[in-house]
Amino acid sequence: MTKIVQVAALTAAFIGLGTIGHSEDRITKLPPLPEFESAGQEPAMASLGKMLYFDARLSGDGSTSCAECHSPEFGFGDGAELSRGYPSSKHWRNSQTIVNSAFIQNGLHWDASVPSLLHQVPGAMGTPFAHNINAALAEERLRQVPEYVEMFQDIWDKPPELETIALAIAAYERTLISADSPFDRFLSGDIAALSQPAARGLQIFAGKGNCVDCHNGSLATDEEFHNTTVPRNPELFTDPERQITYRTAMRGFNVPAEMYMSFERDPGRYAVTLDEKDLGAFRTPPLRYLKYTAPYMHNGILYTLEEVVEFYDNGGTEDVFGTKSPLIKPLGLTDTEKADLVAFLESMSGTEITVEAPDLPVYGLPSTALATNTDEIAPITSTTANAVGQSGISSSSIGLAIVSGGDLQLNQTEVAGRYIVVGEGETLGQIARREYGEVLKYLEIYQANKDVIPDPNRLTPGTRLLIP
Ligand code: HEC
Ligand code: HEC
Closest ligand 2 atom, CA of 298? Predict the structure, then answer.
């Protein structure tokens, strides 16, 4: 058969005229984006949202922006098997791509526990495993930045609020769309857009491989839950910080302790429904943009598409929970068929979406005007805020700390402990008397802060001092 004839026959088969029974058992073009409450302001909202997406100030200790875990460099995931989490926690799942997430209707995250993009933003901000910041602090951080205040005012006629922060970020996420793959061109009628191997791979996807049973519809997902028996990721069970994070999260979901203590597997959707049939089940993920989003699966345990195909060809692995989908069974694919299936999966990825981290605005208040007592928020200086903006996704060097009741959350550049900010005209002796009731303790304070005290007789107001 010539290429054209073969592919044309395939197209006919694929659009439901031939071997494939039901109309839902196929993949269709991406639909228009779902409705969004933007009152005609969506572009302005998206450009504000892009800045917020890259701004680490929207995290408790100023270390973690959305882009840290959903970076353009890693297909809007983070390239790791398991996500890093907020400092001092380590996430128990793989950081998903957010490309095309705007189209997902029946719940976001691997377990579909989050209803929509608008719910997801406050969720990510509030959770101690991602941004670890509450609404009041997030709003306050942005209200200290005149440029942000102006942008929020222009769009909503109000200063920054959690709800509008979420709207802006969601509007930005709606711009991250991939629909220009060879397979998309094929779906639009360009039957020559698929290479020969990819065209054969499509046949396997829709036939011998049974992939289309679950990977169907416009996103190549039925948005249902299946236990495909993905192997465990040992790191989740050997790294104490991951275990702590995981157990805390499971407890938050009301999963019984005997469950998360005994099964060395993520219970997946079960955590949401507490229905045993959902043990080990995850939402079928979309398949566009895979080329840039390795490693794969909810725990990043499979590194390449070849490994994914091998996994399915073996019929999955051990059925620990006794909930394995009957659709997962050995396929008996030949080496050529496996290669063709990989070629087809690759044909579902279009060009890489490249995004430069935006320049971020700086705080408007002079640093000395802020936080002379330990119940306020210590300042980020304009230089440090700008450094976050420029580096975009690697913000480990910024000098921000939340000071609350003397209990500090710090970044790596500072030693853990209690800090104070030097007030106008304050001397080391006065600080020592105030902090310790003992003037001679000034020496200890000096020793601990030598690097930031050029002249111990004349402290610079606004300097942050560690109180040893
Ligand atoms: C510390 C890392 C981290 C940070 C920070 C983070 N995320 Fe995520 N994100 C994840 C992980 C991990 C998942 C998967 C969670 C799960 O399945 O339980 C996820 C899932 C998502 C999803 C679901 C995608 C889908 O298709 O279902 C969206 C959307 C998302 N994040 C957006 C954001 C936004 C917006 C921000 C910033 C407000 C953000 N994330 C901050 C790690 C992070
Ligand atoms: C029973 C439904 C089902 C069938 C059949 C199925 N999948 Fe999946 N697929 C899933 C689910 C669910 C996941 C996520 C599993 C997890 O993370 O634990 C997944 C994950 C994937 C991923 C990883 C995506 C990512 O972003 O990490 C790829 C690639 C994939 N499947 C391709 C295929 C191919 C190719 C076939 C056919 C050989 C196939 N699937 C058959 C349900 C299915």
Answer: 17
Answer yes or no: do 198 and 55 share one domain.
no
Interval 185-204 mean pLDDT: 95
Q: How far apart are CA 347 and CA 370, in angstroms?
A: 54
Alpha carbon of 109 to ligand 1 centroid (Å): 7
Which residue's CA is minimally distant from atom 19 of ligand 1?
95
Distance CA 419, CA 408 (A): 8
User: Which residues' Cβ are closer than 6 Å to ligand 2?
Assistant: 209-211, 213-215, 226, 228, 230, 282, 284-285, 287, 290, 293, 296-298, 308-309, 312, 325, 327-328, 341, 345
Question: Residue with the nearest Cα to atom 5 of ligand 2?
Answer: 211
Indicate which ligand has the atom closest to the C-alpha of 345. 2
- Residue 183 sits in the same domain as residue 82: no
* Residue written as token pair 């106008």: 424
Segment 89-123, tens digit of pLDDT: 999 999 999 999 999 999 999 999 999 999 999 99
Atom in ligand 1 nearest the alpha carbon of residue 298: 17
Distances (CA, A) of 434 to 417, 426, 430: 17, 11, 6
Task: Answer yes or no: do 231 and 282 share one domain.
Answer: yes
CA–CA dist 414, 408 (Å, integer): 10
Tens digit of pLDDT for each residue in 49-101? Answer: 999 999 999 999 999 999 999 999 999 999 999 999 999 999 999 999 999 99
- Can you give the three-state secondary structure of 245-306, one letter per residue? HHHHHHHHCCCCHHHHHHCCCCCECHHHHCCHHHCCEEECCCCCCHHHCCCECCCCCECCHH
Domain assignment of residue 76, given as a range: 42-177+362-391
CATH number of residue 244's parent domain: 1.10.760.10
- The predicted pLDDT at position 12 comes to 52
Same domain flag for 12 and 56: no
